[in-house]
């Protein structure tokens, strides 16, 4: 096993990886940009090294600088977390070339699954269902004609895309050419790859994904599925495991398809195979993420498996430490992404300074974050600040715990979606498991923030301040007027 690992990331995921490293007795090296110096991950690691760049994000994308720091600090491996360089095949290659272990899959798998057109074709070749689609040939008229044969609506997607970039729903032939051009332009801007394709758009689909672990020699197991259907702008905000109201036979079929795909690719380490599930029970391959997912805690909570530990063991050459028979579902888990954004204003990002942070505590509650009071929240990074995860004996108990935990969470100084998430979890459609990727749009009116009495809001702020020990110490430590007057007394 490694003795020292560099975490090529920041914030809550860096704290999460550092926690497992500490438990396993492995030294951790963290990196941070000056703008992020107050982030909790700086103090969570054994060694923190400042990185530089034109922008904070540019610094985190500087593979050469990060590898140099790993070598200088004596790290033997690099854990990329998610985002940034986690699915960058060139970075994985450079890490290996430097004599370090990359805690993730091999570069062939990263490249294959990072290209949506290639991965789709690979899935189809290995008997994994894919939605009917058409690839552009350079002739836009021919592209439109072929797409029309599939029927509308269609979803135009960027081959190298993600996070909803380069994606657009097309409902009639007259829109296709223009939307394809727009998607291609956006894909070129974000991914330097303008290739797009169109596939049948499933109305009111569910987003189901399967967590897999592989040893790189064709041996793969699954850790069951997650439901990720609650999304805004094609990005997830609520995830749960296992999926709600999923028939056991269909669960087995979806999980088997995920294992079949990963095994065919000789996949190593942790990965996630994502599917679209139609209302009629048909499911289609969407993509494979060759990294640890943001929502991995819900899988950990229902299986008891530390996925970061498994990643490290596989990367260290221990093979696949678990068998499929070792994996069983216990209870239900839900995760909410706490984001600095305004749900009342199309989820636009919010900025500010964290003045007070008080996390809920109790059985079955896990608060993943990299926050400290006094830390600035800027637009330099993704607006996700933290993840609130709860576990219950069943889905109803987990939902009740989540609402209570969201209401108990206090974060002052920057606007967040916390109250909005509580309304989502408490909504009758969510409680009933009637989920699909259009949930947020369908229930937009019911999910709006109710009017708030200014007096109640003012009282809540005062109560929150008086619950803060630091504030009370400052208040009680204030000198009397005499303290400003030396020894003089009236």
Report on this structure.
With 490 residues, the protein is an alpha+beta fold. The chain folds into 4 domains: 4-103, 3-Layer(aba) Sandwich (Rossmann fold), CATH 3.40.50.20; 132-200, ATP-grasp fold, A domain (Dna Ligase, domain 1), CATH 3.30.1490; 206-442, D-amino Acid Aminotransferase, Chain A, domain 1 (2-Layer Sandwich), CATH 3.30.470; 454-490, no CATH class. 36% of the residues lie in helices and 24% in strands. The protein is built from 18 helices and 23 strands. The strands form 6 sheets. It has an 8-stranded antiparallel β-sheet with strand order 14-13-10-11-12-15-22-20, with helices on both faces. The chain has a 5-stranded parallel β-sheet with strand order 3-2-1-4-5, sandwiched between helices. Strands 6-9-7-8 form a 4-stranded antiparallel β-sheet, covered by helices on one side. Strand 16 (341-342) and strand 17 (348-349) form a beta hairpin. Helix 5 runs antiparallel to helix 6 (107-114) and helix 13 (395-408) runs antiparallel to helix 14 (418-426). The chain is globular and about 75 Å long. Residues 482-490 have low confidence and may be disordered.
